[in-house]
Every structure is written in C-alpha cells, then in structure tokens.
Amino acid sequence: MQNIFDASTAQDYIARINKLTPESSPNWGQMTVDQMLAHLNVAYELAFEPQKFKKMGGIAKFIMKNFVKAKVMGEKSYPQNGPTSPLFKIAGIKDFEAEKKRLIGYIQKTQQLGRDAFDGKENHSFGKLTAQEWNNMFAKHLNHHLQQFGV
C-alpha cells in the first residue's frame, strides 16, 4: 500500500488528479468526473470536518466495525462497481475545478500533518484507527477512483 504521508506519494496522487479534465469519462461505474472528485472529498471531510455529519447509531457502528472495516482498511483493492455507502453518493453536477482543488488540498494537508496526527484519530464509521488504517483507506480509495478514470 502506498504511503499517503510521504511527500513523493502525495505528489504522485496530485499529478494523477491533474491529468483529469471535465471531459474525463469513467472506465466503469456511473459517476461523472466531478461527482467522483466530490465523492473522494467525503472521506477527507469525515476526517477533518466530522461535525458536518450525523453521528452513527450504535448498531450501525457495530456493523461497520465488525463487518465492513476489514474490507475498507485491508490491502485488497476495491472491486469495480462495488457498493457505495449512502454517505458517499453524490448527486447532481459539481464544480470540477473546486472539487479538484479541495481534493488536492486535503491530500496536501494529510501529508503535512503526517502519520502521528492520524494515529488513534476517530473515524465516523469505524471508531479510532491507526495511522496505517487511515493510510490504507485513503490510498485505496484514491487509487480505485483514479484508475476508474484512467489516471
């Protein structure tokens, strides 16, 4: 798994994002490129702005921690056309440039804060995570959707 806390890796992701255009089309799935960028931003909003989201109930959090977490945090890639949490579903047209700029900013912020800032940090769905779990989740999600759009 790539290390999102590494400056070179963060720059590689940014370079891939910069290859996207408003006309980029997916190799699979239904999202448009602007929706995909907004979708990726949700993961970072959950990390940096959790107050924007309704807290999960105990049963939902139990299910997420015990049945979903391993798939999200593990090393295995996400399948194409896999299920998406309602929290991450994006509808309508989004501002491509604004979403792209926000995503790049979040990647830079994550890298600059570094591994230590994420070790033990609370996650909306899964509770406290290790820095490696945050890394896997961010890197896997970014890579999956950038591959979806051929970059």
Describe this structure in words.
The chain is globular, with a radius of gyration of 15 Å. 56% of the residues lie in helices and 3% in strands. The protein has 151 residues and is mainly α. It contains six helices and two strands; from the N terminus they run αααααββα. Helix 1 packs antiparallel against helix 4 (96-113). The longest helix is centred in the last third of the chain and has 18 residues, at 96-113. The protein has helices at residues 7-18, 33-48, 58-73, 96-113, 115-118, 131-148, and strands at 122-123, 127-128.
Average per-residue pLDDT, rounded, comes to: 94
Strand content: under 5%
* Major pleated sheet: 2 strands, antiparallel
Strand order of the largest sheet: 1-2
Helical content class: 55-70%
Q: Could you tell me the radius of gyration in angstroms?
A: 15 Å
Question: What are the segments in which pLDDT stays under 50 over at least 5 consecutive residues?
Answer: none
Structural class: mainly alpha
Number of strands: 2
Q: Give the overall silhouette.
A: globular
Distance between the termini: 17 Å
